[in-house]
Amino acid sequence: MSSYLPTLKQLQYLVALKEQGHFGKAAEACFVTQSTLSAGIRELESLIGVTLVERTRRVVRFTALGDRIVEKAHRVLREAEELAAIAEASGKPLTGELRMSVIPTIAPFLLPRMLPRLRADRPELKLYLREETSQAAIESLRHGNVDCVLLALPFPMGELDSEILFEDRLYVAFPQDDPTNPPEWIKPGMIDESKLLLLEDGHCLKDHALAACNRPDLRASATMMGTSLHTLIQMVDNGLGVTMIPEMAIAGGILDHTRITARPLKSDRSARDIALVWRRNSPREKEFHMLAEILRDAAAKSCRLPEAA
Fold first, then answer.
1. Are residues 138 and 266 in the same domain?
2. Domain of 136?
3. What is the pLDDT of residues 126-164, one digit of tens each?
4. Which of 88, 197, 214, 263 has its CA 20 to 30 A from that of 31?
């Protein structure tokens, strides 16, 4: 075995530079100076005898070999983190650090209910949260930047494991008195495609809403304008159209102080599944199942509307 092996720190610097595309930003992400990061990457290049990064005054460009080594570096760093996790998991479960990504259509509605329960049940757990769109969250999980993800399914995940926490029904939200005396349930055929407002690309809720309606004309005609559910609600409240929102958002009070009426959508796929997702064969798998149970219990008490609603 060669005695000249890259260090984990050098690989971390290289991965950070690839993700940030800028030496200064990469150094900030690694909590080191720019000169330290730059020197570490040069040492790595000298060690393996190849150029990984082409440097100019304005552009950081990775060579083809550099891109390949970054992919390998992601795997090495992930395996190193899992080595530490094995030792940590052998002690008391759900203690120490846990990094979780949460998508924007879940975070503001579930986290306020979940976090007090976690603090009470697991005071030794240090939970670090980041809000990301679904694809970004899955990439963070694959690259080892986070340990687990709170996600809405269906969504293509590849070789990852998950546990479904609960079902989150979809509702149609429309301005007051439009329509007058709305029915108890809204069928997809009743939605005017010219008035439908959806989240912009990158949010899986948009795909879940369109799939629930199963109307190709909606995909072609829907006005996808909202950057967040709160933005969509403001647009609907001002009479600009209708939208679809999840039950947990309504239970979380998103319609409070608005004149919006919401009715459940009636279709074969009128709900999304909220799930906890982690890397397959993770040494913390048992902890994730325990965490899923805590989240499921917290959601059962706060994320569902009364049946009569």
1. no
2. 100-158+276-300
3. 889 999 999 999 988 988 889 999 999 988 888 899 999
4. 88
Within 10 angstroms of residue 128's Cβ, the number of other Cβ atoms is: 11
Token pair of 88 as six digits: 């940590």
Q: Residue 308 pLDDT > 50, yes or no?
A: no
**Domain edge (last residue) among 53, 87, 121:** 87
Question: Is there a single domain that holds both residue 259 and residue 202?
Answer: yes
Say which residues have a Cβ less than 8 Å from residue 109's Cβ, sequence separation at least 6. 246, 248, 249, 251, 252, 254, 303
Examine the domain organization and report whether 79 and 116 are in the same domain.
Answer: no
Rounded to 5 degrees, φ, ψ at 220 are: -80, -30
Give me 304's structure tokens. Answer: 């569902």
Domains identified in the chain, total number: 3
Same domain, 193 and 267: yes
d(CA 14, CA 64): 14
For residue 48 the two structure tokens come to 């393996």
Please check the confidence at residue 241 and state whether its pLDDT lies above 80: yes
Task: Give the long-range contacts of residues 225-231, CB within 8 A, separation 24 or more.
Answer: 225/197, 225/198, 225/200, 226/197, 226/198, 226/199, 226/200, 227/199, 227/200, 228/104, 228/199, 229/104, 229/105, 229/199, 229/205, 229/254, 230/254
Say how far residue 265 (Cα) sits from the centre of its chain. 24
What is the 8-class DSSP label of residue 190?
G
Read off the pTM. Answer: 0.70
Q: pLDDT for 54-75, tens place per residue?
A: 887 777 889 888 888 988 888 8
Tokens 């049946």 found at: 307
- 128 token code pair: 């670090």
